Give the backbone structure.
Amino acid sequence: MRKLKILFVFLIFSLFLFWPGFVQAQEEILEGKITNILEQDLSLKDGQETIYQKLEILVSKGSFKGQKIEVESGDISVVSQPIFKAGDGVLISYSQDFEDNDVFFVVDFTRRWPLFWLFVIFLVLTFFIGKKRGLMAILGLLISFLVIFKFILPGIYNGYDPVLVSILGSVLIVPLTFYLSHGLNKKTSIAVAGTFLSLLITGILASLFIYLTRLTGYSSEEAAFLQVAKQGAINIRGLLLAGIIIGTLGVLDDITISQAAIVRQLKLADKKVPVKKLFSRAMSVGKDHIASMINTLVLVYTGASLPLLLLFINGSSTFSQIINYEIIAEEIIRTLVGSIGLITAVPITTFLAVKLMGKKEE
């Protein structure tokens, strides 16, 4: 137990020791509220209705705070062109052209308050139902965000190997969040070990099949933009692998903790149960867990890719042709490799728990 506490402190120290800094943005994003619609005109261009608006905006954040600016919006054919009205909160991009003239354009609506209240509902329900354990889980969630946004993302953006950065980030996230959420005990330690072993298998398989299928990582526009912005400093294929590792990590917690807890409860219910029977009983529960989690993964990825899938269904391509597209193959590998990681986590964690739960509880 003392060694676990020392490791816990060391991981926190490592997070701050190797903390990469933020990358400063080259353009400024202002925030403001539309106070008046100065002009508005509806016209037809290229067969589509377009709306032109001249907005008066009171800036609330940024270098123009407290000032009113005029911003033109629309007058181009775009899908789902927003129509602004007085009182809307907006984000405004500010830059200067070659003649040092101020250039403003509306980027998007501000959505902070609806998101804030949704988060409040989440916090209240988590604390009300989960009590102390729920509070610790929220703290673990905040630490995960801290590691991702302060360590993993800046590290990758600054040109470090995405896979190495993601692995180091996982080494920080797993013990910190697991021990905070589930306590410093043998059950959690077994779950941590099972998670790392399953994550290793996931990483090896993902790397192998990304290589065999010759995925480049450029299936999304974001990857191409990032490559141009960083002038090739980021390993896009490594970024794809890192994304699979982090995505799988998010669901391994549920599997490994559940299996360790199941073994512990079975052992407490019958302290004389043979090892083989204990393993068999725990695995029977684990099989149901596997089935439900795989179905969950497939539905989650499918739901996130519905617009893309509809595009392919609307076309003339056959199924065998569709799965050869990189953007589809990437999601198939992500889903199957993640599912394999979950499947292997069940017997691995169950085996470790059966072997170690026979010892006296700390």
Observations:
- The chain is about 65% helix and 15% strand.
- The chain has two domains: 28-110, 113-356.
- The two ends are 8 Å apart (CA to CA).
